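Notes from the pairing session

We agreed to fold both candidates in a single pass and log them together. This is the raw record for the first candidate, unedited. Please don't reformat it; downstream parsing expects exactly this layout.

Candidate A
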Amino acid sequence: MPNKLTRDRAEQRVMEDLVNALLAEQFLDDHASVERLSKGEWDAIITQDAQMKAVQEQFGAGADLATHVYRWHLEDAVIVFPVRASIAQPYWFEISYGLCKASLHAGKAALLSKPSPLELMGHVVMLYMNDPVAVDPYGAVKFLHMIEQTLLQTSFSLENEQPAAHILGLPQRASLLAAERKAGYRDRPFHPVSKVKQGWAYDECSSYTAEFGRRIKLNWMAVKQDYVVSGLEEGKELFPVDLLLSDEERSQISNELNRRGLGEGAYTAIPVHPWQMSAILPEQIKRELEEGICIPLETETGTFYATSSVRSLMPENESPYHVKLPLGIYSLGGLRYLSAIKLMNGQQAEWLMRQAVERDAVLKTKLFLCDETKWWAYLPEDRDLFADYPRHLSALVREYPAELVQDADIRLLPMSALSVYASAENGHVLDEWLKLMGSDRSEPAAVVRLFHEVLVSYFEICFRLFRLGMMPEVHGQNCVLVWKHGKIEGLLLRDHDALRVHVPWLKANGLEDPAYTLRAGYPNSLYHEHPQKLLSFFQMLGIQVNIYAILRSVSQYYGLSEESLWEELQTCLEEAIQKAELPDEVANVLQEALFVKAVWPWKQVVRPLLKKQTMRVPGSMPYGQGEVANPFHILNDFKNRRDRLCFVFNQEYKV
């Protein structure tokens, strides 16, 4: 069981993410029982109300930076917490500010306590007890259970936190694994229940998550060849064992197939995650197991490690082949299966992006794609691609580009690793990079230069793809920086199945509709009639999730103001727009959406989990989109206020 210190750290992290999600998604707005008080109003209250003054004394030292105070009246208590005006969202809560619950009784001193995330969310659910559209009772129970598991699994993760280690100085394979482990400690930034793998206890988390770094031996399922569909070209004979196993390991599988009368092409051996083999498949494919369509093999072979995505595994040896496997667990509210449809659509998306690379000289040298065309899946006799079966027994063998893995000087750095830091020496990846460039963390200008280089490289590639009518799912887990001798040489993309497109721009650039296979009658997020909608996914996943997580980690670790880094972010966007050599139509869309419009789209993470789900593709992550003020408008307001204060100060003291 994790110790108290670790449990407290887990609770603080989850509480900060939860409160900020509630604020961003406006859960506490427009309720008579919830007040948002200005600092002046709060200061006036505590001079007259002894109970509120006692609450004030519970706040942390950081609360001096707060600009407002939320006061939420319950039946016989009040929850109070300070917030500050923010660029990313209207109000931001820092865990250092403190959050206090005061149980009030007339004529008595207030009983003060710190509510847990679970208790706080319980009060939110009660706040919406008469609004089942916004908060479905069943969804609320599930979400509370997710918080409970998140707290426990986050504490597992933190208790196993490794000492800060060099990443860029390690050999490439070891470097990538270390970066994946580092990224695993944060998972999906700002998501209060991102860490939860529902139903997993300590044994599963310690065996199968990246943070623990344990070896995973693949299990294997022999599937009758007539029931296997793959992404291979017709007539091409290739099997998972050929790519994932050594000669000796392949012999072990081959010998068992022959010994059991399953050889000579009658069956294909498909790798299975060991947890999936024992916990999910016995019930999912019960009939197939009884009829001998699927036969579990006794041989466990092929040694891999979990990456931060958990279901994608990287090899112990120097092989360029990683493997992505279905897992019947819920994470981020979605089931982590791997459907044949997703694999097919990912293959179509990759084909389209490879065509795009040929049409852009810069993408040709700076954009790299993992090969995700080698996949195999069980398909039932009725060939129903939307049935449950292809989702739970399949495998994608992801091949990393030879020109990258064969270059000993290249390091592959998932952008998600840049959003994580520890308090120890070498706590942030940029520390090591700074040293290699002859600088250190005491030089803010050097830190900002590296931040600038990462952002401009990333933005330019995103904008060149957007110009052609497409936008990948560019969050930090999918985007891998290609780093060499202290420079960003390009961007490697993986997990192509969510490439979104605007067909008119594709066709205008001589590209074709990828012809995705979609479930009839269900909404999809892959095709967009308007380029602005396509760009919204870049704003949400690319900036608000990926880049803001990096910005915030750099701000906190190196002591740089978020305002100054947002200014740098704006400069990087403007520079990337220029470098991307965009037609006027595309540049105008970018300028309008990024800098002119008063609002930006906001990817909701809590509301979709609480709402009653209708017309949702089975297993997909719940999706919701709201709005926030354009961060660059807020940035300008901050700068204007700062300039006015400087003017008043200068006039007062004749500086």
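Candidate B (folded immediately after A)
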Amino acid sequence: MTSSALSDLKALLLDADIRREDAELESLLRGAAAAPDDARDRWTELLAPSADPGLRDRLINAGRRFMDGLGDSFTDGPAPASRLEALREEMRRQGLDGLVIPRTDEYQGEYIPQKSERVLWLTGFSGSAGTVVVGLDKAAIFVDGRYTLQVRDQVNIDLFEPRHLIEQPATDWIAETFKTGDRIGFDPWLHTQHGAGHLNIAAQKAGAVLIRVENNPVDAVWADRPAAPVAPVVPQEMRFAGESAEDKRARLGKALTDKGIDAAAITATDSIAWLLNMRGADVPNCPLPLSFALLNADATVDWFIDDRKLTPDARAALGNGIVVRPESEFADALADLGRQGKVVQADPATAPCLVFDRLSQYGAKTVEAADPCLLPKACKNDVEIEGTRTAHKRDGAALSRFLHWLSVEAPKGGQTELSVIDRLAKFRAEGEHFRGFSFDTIAGAGPNGAVIHYRAVERTNRKVETGQLLLVDSGGQYLDGTTDVTRTMAVGTPAREMMERFTLVLKGHIAIATARFPVGVTGSQLDTLARLPLWQAGLDFDHGTGHGVGSYLNVHEGPQRIAKAFNAVALKPGMILSNEPGYYKAGEYGIRIENLVVVRAVESAPDGAERDLLEFETITLAPIDRTLIVVDMLTGPEREWLNAYHVRVRDAILPQLDGEASDWLRQATEPV
């Protein structure tokens, strides 16, 4: 560990008036990177005098960053080639010619515990989405447009051929690479029913056979694989949830009864957390307990979870309708439903295919249908919406303090991406009900801003320099809501091209923010609005325009989204989504403007309207950099929206600021 890393850590601790020896700090940082959930308890003890959960999260994140060069399992560069060699030897031992390794776990979540980071361990790739396919002679890694630059930086491309997940999918590579008689392995816990079906078609095209493996070959050769997390589970209070778990269970149980379904297998951890009004900390950034559940038609729930996680408050809140069972019994419980001839609903898009295998093998009648919690969870109740609005007011104040600080300090020089991340974390952690970050903050200076999901580490850490753009994408987890906001700032005087393209992105952002649309319209039908200004200039961006956001849950939530890809889910009142068009010039700069919006009914429909209309309410409150706007490129209505938005920001945030920060906000929200 570098002396500068220890110095930075000491500075964080001194803010809380805590002093510790270097040896203890180094030990804690090693633990934070290797087993963050265990480390959280150690940090809790260390920081007991401060009782500051925000500082704890900052220290754990610092521990992950400060691991460069320490030789642990997880690094920020390519993994050793010996791991691939060991895996191939294990594949030969199991009689496999190929192996599909998705970046997921048995719960199919975006954020996974360290023990499930198989792709990271094998390749060095740390992105949130990707798949590796390993053959005995060659291998490939498949990532989407967010990670096309990152994958080449983190992975040894002599060992793993980088391919675009959409344009060059793994199924095509499988069909092209393998031959008749080859045996391609996959772990049925790590693939959904739909996903396994696509793999099977690809294998058949090659004349190969898809083989379910009971002992995952990666796990067999991962000698120092971390243990499963055992983070505490706590109830989500009614003042934040807005509906009791009992009422949710009754509502969804009745829906199952009406359809003649005996039980629903629920494997999405955010669905279970929402249904039972429970929160945990088993994975980074999302307040989730890892578990499975069976929702029965009589509104009871069998909850399969390591009961060491349950705090006394959680046990007391469960009530009589929830039976806690060991997680290891979930597969056997599915078999029992089959033996009883039950009708069981499971989601082929989110549940591991093992669920369907087990139900079918033992005689259950399986109904393939969406997770029954998806839409109810997505359509926030009034309490959740108001809580999210309130959380955004506090979050906006933290962002405004940060943006003011940046406007003063960045021109002086000496700031880096990591110092920017730590400063923003400090401002955000001061907010009421703050419980951590909704994802690892993205701070990309200059060319790093063009890496869509860039993650700064000491090796890649760039200085924030005059003449650059700085893109900062960040969010907080609060008891009353989840935030996600991106701002792009000019450091010094921006180039004309930067301003023009920023303005094109802003025009697309405003088009979504001001859209009115009939009931029944989907996000994919609106996506073009965000891209049209860029398209007309021959430009585009390679990610979705908007994703769903939870209420003190996942920052990426379905089933709603705004994207090019077809989505059959109509937008409904209460859904929260991001509005985040962007533009990225490889090797030079990146631009993204992101606010969260909530779908609501249009109260005053225009004369002659023949259909009920919906619209978006923007709930993020933070200034948009006016120095990057070419005002003449905006239409009159676009300028009106921007000025009105900045009035809202000023009215909501100014009472929370004082001194120079309040003066800065007044200037930053002046009309254009």
